[in-house]
Amino acid sequence: MYTFLEYLGILGLIIVCYKLVKSILLLSYFFLAPLLRLNIDLEKMGKWAVVTGATDGLGKAFALKLASKGVNIVLISRSKTKLVSVASEIEEKYKVVTKIIEADFTQKEDIITAIEKELSGLEIGVLINNVGLSYPHPEYFLETEKAEQLYSDIVQVNVAAMLIMCQIIMPGMVERKKGVVINVSSTAADIPSPLLSVYGASKIFVSKFTRDLGSEYKKRGVIVQCLVPGFVATKMSKIKRATWMAPSPGAYVSSALKTVGIQSHTTGYFPHTLHLNFIKLMESLSPRFAEWIIVRTMLNLRKRALKRYPQ
């Protein structure tokens, strides 16, 4: 007979083996699927792609990558100056047509009608719901500066904007029986996110909604994917230098688009998958220790941010 500790050891070994096998399978997805052409040809979905939050970071990288495939691009963001600049860059580099829509998703007024009017008549095959808003830095829920406005804006941008764009664009995809919707969530939705509680919760909504939406419209020809990236070197993350674990937006997007049609819920980038599985493994083995590590990390980020930008 095994002792209780031996049973725990066996259980831990089983969990570790399961995570290892899962990581190996995911590794094969990332590298073999594109070679076997199992992923979707996005350029065949329609003549246009729509990207929200398209002037910086991941949004701009998505727009550039899709344009490189010969797809016309609709850029949506709140800065007209940046929109014009990115549109010019895309047209000059890839010789495709662009269209810009100036829209501030933090505003409460109805923007559905305005966006619908601008998109009317376009054969949109790809929608990238990328626009997002987070905290200036990790902070306690009750100590966040201008908390009421910030939390309201986070919900409006991360949740409502996604719903609005799906409502506007998906009917055309359903009618043509083809299309791809990519909703950008975050690993914050899959792991504990103390000191980013509202942001993490908003991204959980994105993940849950995307899973169920994909199930609803799979048989109607619409692929709905949720991306849960980890750290990427963008203005939002405040990471200035790209690394293996925090890639450039271009490197991340190139990897993520290879998973479309293969994985419905993915980090989109294998090192992020390893990191996510490691944290989940820690949680399964010792939830308290995993929580302690994450809280300490967030507190260190908060301390550095306050030192750099004192209130």
TrEMBL record:
CDD domains attached to this UniProt entry: 17beta-HSD1_like_SDR_c
One Gene Ontology cellular component annotation held by this UniProt entry: endoplasmic reticulum
Keywords associated with the record: NADP, Oxidoreductase
GO terms for MF: oxidoreductase activity
Top-rank taxon, per record: Eukaryota
InterPro entries: NAD(P)-bd_dom_sf, SDR_fam, VLCFA-Steroid_DH
Gene3D superfamilies the UniProt entry points to: NAD(P)-binding Rossmann-like Domain (3.40.50.720)
UniProt cross-references to PANTHER family, sorted A to Z: RH59310P (PTHR43899)
Family: Belongs to the short-chain dehydrogenases/reductases (SDR) family.
Name the UniProt record assigns to this protein: Uncharacterized protein
